[in-house]
Amino acid sequence: MAISLTESAAHRVRTFLAARGSGIGLRLGVRKTGCSGFAYVVNYAEAQQPGDTVFEDRGVRVFVDSASLDLVDGTIVDFVKEGLNEAFRFRNPNVKGECGCGESFSV
After folding, report:
1. CB neighbours of 44 closer than 8 A, spacing ≥ 6?
2. Which helix (H) or strand (E) segment is 63 a member of?
3. What is the pTM of this model?
């Protein structure tokens, strides 16, 4: 099992955590929503929660709750800037389909 980060994503997390002065890493999960079934939930982790699995890549810890782990296992997290837009992007090998707007996915 693994979650990995591109250098761009790791840099974004490290920079943001330093600027806000708190937090211990990135929290990645999923929630049921949208037309395809699931959407990613990304937050900054303040503490490890019971049941979390912790991955470390490029100096950043990534916390994943047990309910989300099977759905995001193997995901590569990237951070991209396109014009004025910037966002985390996910290359998840478990995804079987995505909705047309790109906000949700199915496994």
Report:
1. 13, 16, 17, 20, 23, 25, 26, 27
2. strand 60-64
3. 0.87
Angle at 6 between CA 22 and CA 59, to 5 degrees: 45
**What pLDDT digit, counting tens, does each position of 39-75 carry?**
889 999 999 999 999 999 999 999 999 999 999 999 9
CATH label, 4-106, candidates 2.60.300.12, 3.40.980.10, 3.40.50.1820, 2.40.40.10: 2.60.300.12
Check if the beta carbon of residue 73 is closer than 8 Å to that of residue 2. Answer: yes
Provide the residue ranges of all domains of the chain, joining segments of one domain with +. Answer: 4-106
Give the whole-angstrom CA distance, residue 105 versus residue 102.
8
Report how far residue 92's alpha carbon sits from residue 107's, in angstroms, rounded to the nearest whole number.
10
Residues 64, 69, 73, 77: is their CA dihedral positive or negative?
negative
At residue 38, the pLDDT reads: 84
